[in-house]
Design goal:
Elements: H1 2-36, H2 39-89, H3 94-105, H4 120-164, H5 174-184, H6 187-202, H7 204-217, H8 231-236
Helix pairs in contact: 2-4, 2-6, 2-7, 3-4, 4-7, 6-7
Length: 237
């Protein structure tokens, strides 16, 4: 009888240990799999998983980051174009301004005396000095104008190329559109609008190119006759 009881207890223990081992195998099966699998096979599986993860997650992420980079490049150049245009517009009437300064400078510093008491030699010397000063100033102004036009042309070329050949699709992103529309309704662009009439009189092609880029983001087709900004913004000015 005693032997029978011992046998029964041993059976229960064996069954219990067997059950524990089944749970342990289930819990440790993944660990044991990687522990027992050859490194060559594991490397192969790792490469396969890496490719799958890259296709699943990286493509969209890389594409979105490229859109952000393209938009940042585009927006920076658009703001540069507007900034340089504001500076260029101050020279829109430089011919008249310099001529006025030259003509009024001729008699500046001459003695307060009737015209017939001012010697021809003195007046001629004064005119020669003013003419030389005028030509020197004119040359300096024209050099500055050329610099601004070069910078403007470069910035607008980048904007036009990127908006026409939009490989990443940054123009279609609503968040980008919202950012530029906010800028178009801000102080920096409003200051440009106040000077744009001067720019248009002297350099109409530049003004049209800027207008065309801005209308892209306002949801209207870019045409030479399209308004630069919305009627709402014009009214607020």
């Amino acid at each position: 009888m005693k032997k029978l009881m011992l046998s029964a207890m041993a059976l229960v223990m064996i069954v219990g240990i067997g059950s524990f081992k089944v749970d342990s195998v289930r819990a440790e099966s993944l660990y044991e799999y990687y522990a027992d699998t050859a490194s060559v096979e594991l490397e192969k599986e790792t490469r396969t998983m890496g490719l799958e993860l890259k296709q699943t997650f990286s493509q969209d992420n890389i594409h979105y980051n490229q859109q952000k980079i393209d938009f940042a490049t585009y927006f920076t150049n658009l703001k540069k174009a507007v900034l340089y245009s504001r500076k260029l517009s101050t020279y829109s009437e430089y011919h008249d301004d310099l001529a006025f300064a030259r003509d009024n400078e001729v008699f500046k510093g001459l003695p307060d005396a009737p015209r017939d008491q001012v010697s021809d030699k003195e007046l001629r010397a004064r005119k020669e000095f003013v003419a030389e000063k005028y030509e020197r100033t004119k040359l300096n102004v024209e050099e500055e104008i050329d610099i601004y036009i070069d910078l403007l042309t470069l910035a607008l070329d980048v904007c036009e190329s990127m908006s026409v050949n939009d490989l990443s699709g940054f123009v279609a992103l609503e968040e980008n559109r919202a950012q530029i529309v906010k800028w178009l309704n801000g102080d920096q662009y409003a200051a440009y609008i106040r000077e744009s009439a001067k720019l248009s009189r002297t350099w109409p092609e530049i003004e049209k190119r800027i207008a065309n880029q801005c209308t892209i983001w306002q949801g209207r087709p870019a045409t030479p006759d399209a308004p630069i900004i919305s009627a709402k913004l014009v009214g607020s000015l």
